[in-house]
């Protein structure tokens, strides 16, 4: 109750501050238009933003430990968050500046129009792709390598139960967590990428086929897709995974293969819808008519005439689809039915280390482990979404 | 008015048809399991007599079509069969205690819990997202608009469990204000229940608010270029009045649509959140049953989720037709 009361008091104080700001501004500037026409909400916003900024700066410079040596965990986490935010903003800015000076004329122009969020997204995607491809060289140990020391705490400080060999510690059977985090990029992102490609191949080719041939094939495919889309995708995936786990038996790698196929089929329904809609707009064009009259085959029509003209909307969809697939796989792994051990994977890592979060008050570094794996998932989807948002904004040109 | 009722009836019939086909899909999918349930329950060392007994008891000796209609008929009357995990297989060795937990008994209280969670979330999320959306449209392209845009985009794209653990870290561990585990049981007072539900509800709010708020903003901004808004502005109305009185009623159809869609998402999005907070809802039951392959429960949960999803989508459809005269009288 006292928390709510404090919050209410702060809001009242900020509201009063806003009123005072506007009133003082009007008096001091001799009723200048800026202050005369300022709505109360704007004044409130200014005061609120300013007090938030001042509080953040004050909080940032609080000591990270109390006098007794107990860590002040709130401050530690806040500092990490702020440092991460500042570093990523600077990195995105530098990356955009680099893109503006280096490269072809077209790419330089692209970077000139880019907002900071989009350049951050591009940077994140490049970093993840690099980590995924070179995981074997970047990781200090193998993903399945088991060490004798189990449950080593993160930090690498021998005095606090760490080990310099394992900067992020080891898990309950002695596998190096940093290596598993790096290999997670390869497995989680790689599997999601393969799944998305499969979904696009399936949904895209069937969608274009339905658009070109129309008639009964289009009817059958469209109704089938309608039914599949009426079942919520995560629920359907879980149901099918139950059956797949019975099929796979004790062969765990087979379950991963089934998962790829199941998610690809479920997601290809969304791709089918889009590909069919885009395709229907294209098949009425004159050049398709000309190609048909020339006597071109179905394959030529789909891959040489329709596909090149549908690339732009499909590319934006690919980004969004990838996010959905990636999140679905992460959720399935988190629930324990997705990517199977011994493959390192972020969803499973979050589930395994989730209980560490309760130690936040004593050892912030240990509590950061589940957040690190979950954050790795979040960072990639956020990055891809930033890029897609910018692409959609550019192509739609929203009014006002 | 006559045409409206006809359109609604058409949609209802279509929804029922979809639900029927979906139930067929679920049933077929479950029947693709290798072997049959009886074999699966008893394992490899089962005697043929025991397998036959269970097969007869569960009705597995009937052909699939008969079984499907038995299942569907039972489901319509609220009888979803017996759970494997809860089934009393003592009866097959001759010591039947006669007590069995049916799937319906298992699901009913959890379904109520899940609806409670969804309702609490909706009560927080809908007003917040409407207000934020209107404010973002009012102060479009300002610092406030950009900050909300980036924040909502981030919360849409993060996985639910990431948001859940961040909230647990800040609201339960570092500042112990709310409980991080929602152990809800019968006979709890409403206040206590609300307190335990608040953290999962806040997580779900973060997930759905972003989508609804962005849609509200986009729907309003799309209308701002219309001539009648220009007129209202030239009359000298304040920007707030222009948006709330003139733009909002016309933007209502897409907004209602997106709210209903997000409620539909809530019903399914609860799965991960319920697992994180150990909330005794239907989502957690579903995941647990998936892990132990308790087929009747999985089947029933799947059907309930699909029905809720289809119903809410239907509702969105009908509401958007009702709120938009142009859709009510199609040319």
How far from one another are the termini of chain A?
A: 44 Å
Shape of chain A: globular
Q: Helicity range of the residues of chain A?
A: over 70%
The arrangement of helices and strands of chain A along the chain is HHHHHHHHHHHHHHHH
Gyration radius of chain B, rounded:
25 Å
Fourth-level CATH superfamily of the largest domain in chain A: MetI-like
Highest-level CATH class of the largest domain in chain A: Mainly Alpha
Q: If interface size is counted as residues with C-beta under 8 Å from the partner's C-beta, which chains form the largest one?
A: A-B, 58 and 69 residues
Mean pLDDT across all residues of chain A, rounded? 85
The number of domains of chain A is 3
The CATH homologous superfamily of the largest domain in chain B: MetI-like
Shape of chain B: globular
Pattern of helices and strands of chain B: HHHHHHHHHHHHH
Cα gyration radius of chain A (Å): 27 Å
Number of domains of chain B: 2
Number-wise, the strands of chain B total: 0
The biggest sheet of chain A amounts to:
none
**Biggest β-sheet of chain B: count, sense, barrel?**
none
The rounded distance between the terminal residues' Cα atoms of chain B is 16 Å
**Structural class computed from helices and strand pairing of chain A:** mainly alpha
């Amino acid at each position: 109750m006292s928390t709510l009361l404090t919050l209410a008091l702060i809001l009242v104080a900020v509201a009063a501050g806003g009123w005072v700001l506007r009133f003082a501004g009007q008096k001091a500037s001799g009723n200048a238009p800026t202050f005369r026409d300022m709505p109360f909400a704007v004044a409130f916003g200014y005061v609120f933003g300013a007090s938030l900024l001042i509080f953040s700066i004050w909080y940032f410079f609080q000591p990270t430990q109390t006098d007794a040596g107990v860590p002040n965990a709130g401050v530690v986490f806040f500092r990490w968050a702020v440092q991460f935010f500042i570093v990523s903003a600077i990195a995105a800015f530098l990356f955009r500046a680099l893109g503006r000076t280096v490269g072809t004329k077209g790419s330089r122009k692209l970077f000139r129009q880019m907002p900071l969020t989009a350049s951050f997204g591009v940077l994140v995607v490049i970093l993840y792709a690099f980590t995924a491809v070179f995981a074997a060289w970047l990781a200090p140990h193998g993903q399945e390598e088991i060490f004798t020391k189990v449950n080593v705490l993160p930090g690498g400080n021998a005095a606090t139960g760490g080990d310099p060999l394992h900067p992020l510690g080891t898990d309950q059977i002695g596998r190096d967590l940093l290596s598993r985090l790096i290999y997670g990029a390869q497995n989680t992102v790689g599997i999601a990428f393969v799944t998305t490609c499969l979904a696009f191949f399936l949904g895209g080719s069937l969608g274009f086929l339905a658009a070109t041939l129309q008639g009964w094939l289009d009817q059958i495919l469209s109704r089938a897709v309608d039914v599949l889309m009426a079942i919520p995708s995560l629920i359907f995936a879980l149901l099918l995974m139950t059956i797949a786990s019975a099929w796979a038996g004790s062969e765990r790698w087979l379950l991963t293969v089934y998962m790829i196929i199941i998610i690809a089929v479920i997601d290809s329904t969304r791709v089918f819808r889009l590909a069919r809609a885009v395709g229907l707009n294209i098949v009425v064009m004159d050049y398709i008519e000309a190609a048909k009259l020339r006597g071109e085959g179905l394959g030529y029509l789909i891959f040489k005439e329709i596909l090149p003209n549908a690339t732009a909307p499909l590319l934006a969809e690919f980004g969004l689809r990838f996010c959905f697939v990636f999140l679905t796989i992460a959720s399935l792994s988190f629930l324990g039915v997705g990517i199977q051990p011994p493959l390192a994977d972020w969803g499973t890592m979050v589930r395994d280390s989730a209980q560490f979060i309760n130690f936040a008050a004593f050892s912030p570094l240990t509590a950061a482990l589940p957040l690190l794996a979950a954050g790795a998932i979040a960072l990639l989807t956020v990055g891809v979404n930033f890029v897609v948002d910018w692409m959609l904004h550019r192509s739609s040109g929203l009014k006002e | 008015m006559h045409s409206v009722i006809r359109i609604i009836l058409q949609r209802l019939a279509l929804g029922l048809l979809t639900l029927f086909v979906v139930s067929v899909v679920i049933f077929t999918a479950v029947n693709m399991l290798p072997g049959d349930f009886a074999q699966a329950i008893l394992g490899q060392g089962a005697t043929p007599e025991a397998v036959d007994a269970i097969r007869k008891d569960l009705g597995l000796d009937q052909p699939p079509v008969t079984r499907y209609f038995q299942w569907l008929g039972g489901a319509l009357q609220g009888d979803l069969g017996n759970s494997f995990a809860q089934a009393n297989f003592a009866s097959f060795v001759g010591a039947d205690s006669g007590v069995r937990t049916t799937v319906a008994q298992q699901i009913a209280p959890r379904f109520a819990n899940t609806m409670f969670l969804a309702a609490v979330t909706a009560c927080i999320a809908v007003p917040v997202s409407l207000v934020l959306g209107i404010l973002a449209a009012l102060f479009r392209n300002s610092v406030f608009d950009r900050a909300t845009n980036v924040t909502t985009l981030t919360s849409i794209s993060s996985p639910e469990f990431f948001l859940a653990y961040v909230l647990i870290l800040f609201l339960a561990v570092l500042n112990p204000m709310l409980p991080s585990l929602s152990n809800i049981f019968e006979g709890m007072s409403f206040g206590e229940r609300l307190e335990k539900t608040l953290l999962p509800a806040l997580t779900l709010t973060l997930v759905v608010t972003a989508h609804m708020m962005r849609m509200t903003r986009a729907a309003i901004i799309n209308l701002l270029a219309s001539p009648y808004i220009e007129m209202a502005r030239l009359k000298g109305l304040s920007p707030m009045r222009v948006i709330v009185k003139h733009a909002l009623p016309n933007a209502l159809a897409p907004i209602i649509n997106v709210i209903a869609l997000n409620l539909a998402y809530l019903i399914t999005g609860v799965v991960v959140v319920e697992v994180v907070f150990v909330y005794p809802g239907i989502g957690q039951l579903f995941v647990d049953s998936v892990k132990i392959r308790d087929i009747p429960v999985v089947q029933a949960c799947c059907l309930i989720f699909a029905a809720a999803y289809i119903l809410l989508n239907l509702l969105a459809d009908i509401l958007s037709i009702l709120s938009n005269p142009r859709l009510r009288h199609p040319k």
